[in-house]
Specification:
Largest sheet: 6 strands, parallel
Helix content: 25-40%
Structural class: alpha/beta
Number of strands: 8
Strand content: 15-25%
Mean pLDDT: 95
Order of helices and strands: HEHEEEHEEHHEHEHH
Distance between the termini: 36 Å
Low-confidence stretches: none
Strand order of the largest sheet: 1-8-7-4-6-5
Number of helices: 8
Length: 217
C-alpha cells in the first residue's frame, strides 16, 4: 500500500454523525483514517477551538458502529473493545456532551470521581470510556488488564516530559490504535515531540539519547 501511496484520500463520513464537517475537519478525519489503514499512530495537531474532539469522535463512530460502504452493503464495526479517551479533568464533561450531541449512537461511560469502582462493571458494554490523566495514573493497574481498541490522549502535551508518571502510565495502557490530540505538540524543546512519539510509536524517532544529540542539540 505504501508503494502505491498517492496521498491521504477523502474518507466517507460515518452513518449516524450529527454534524457537518468543515473542509479542514474532514481532512483531520481523513488523516486519522489513513493512520488506521496503514498501521501507524500519530498526532492530530490543530489549534484550540478547531474541533479536534469532533474529528476524533467522527473516527470513533466509524470504528464502533456498523457502516455502509460505497455499494450500500453494511460492514460490521471494526472495534471489538471499547476505546479510551484520556483528557484533563476540565474537559472530560465536554467530551461527554459533544459525544451526546454529534455521535449519539455511541455508548459513552465517564470514568471519574471517587465512586468510579461501580463504573468498571459498565466498561465491557461501552463504546467510549472517558477518563482523566489523574485517574489513569491512579487506576493504571486496573486499566492495564484491558486492551482498548484505541487510546486517545487529548491535550497530549501532558506527556511532554518522558520521565513523568503520566507519560510512563500512558505507555503501559494497551491498545490497537494510539492518537495524540494537541494544539502544542512542542512548546519549549524538540524533546517534547520525542516524548509524544515515544508513546505513539517507540523508536520511530530513535532512542532519546540519539534524538537529543542529532536534533535537540
Amino acid at each position: 500500500r505504501l508503494r502505491k501511496y498517492d496521498g491521504v484520500t477523502e474518507e466517507r463520513l460515518p452513518d449516524g454523525l450529527k454534524a457537518e464537517l468543515r473542509p479542514y475537519q474532514q481532512r483531520g478525519y481523513d488523516w486519522l483514517a489513513f493512520l488506521r489503514d496503514f498501521g501507524f499512530h500519530g498526532i492530530l495537531a490543530d489549534d484550540m477551538g478547531l474541533g479536534k474532539t469532533l474529528q476524533a469522535l467522527t473516527w470513533l463512530l466509524a470504528e464502533h458502529k456498523p457502516q455502509k460502504d460505497e455499494t450500500g452493503e453494511v460492514k460490521p464495526a471494526r472495534a471489538e473493545n471499547p476505546s479510551l479517551v484520556v483528557c484533563p479533568t476540565s474537559v472530560a464533561s465536554n467530551w461527554v456532551a459533544e459525544a451526546a450531541k454529534f455521535t449519539p449512537g455511541l455508548k459513552v461511560v465517564k470514568l471519574t470521581g471517587a465512586n468510579r469502582d461501580k463504573v468498571y462493571d459498565q466498561l465491557k458494554n461501552a463504546d467510549i470510556v472517558i477518563t482523566t490523566y489523574a485517574i489513569m495514573r491512579l487506576d493504571l493497574a486496573r486499566l492495564q488488564r484491558r486492551t482498548f481498541h484505541a487510546l486517545i490522549l487529548d491535550e497530549a502535551q501532558n506527556i511532554k516530559n518522558p520521565e513523568s508518571q503520566t507519560a510512563i502510565a500512558a505507555k503501559k495502557v494497551k491498545s490497537k490504535h494510539r492518537f495524540a490530540l494537541t494544539g502544542t505538540p512542542l512548546e519549549n524543546s524538540l524533546l517534547e515531540l520525542w516524548s509524544v512519539f515515544d508513546f505513539l510509536m517507540p523508536d520511530f524517532l530513535d532512542q532519546k539519547s540519539m534524538f537529543k544529540s542529532r536534533y535537540v542539540r
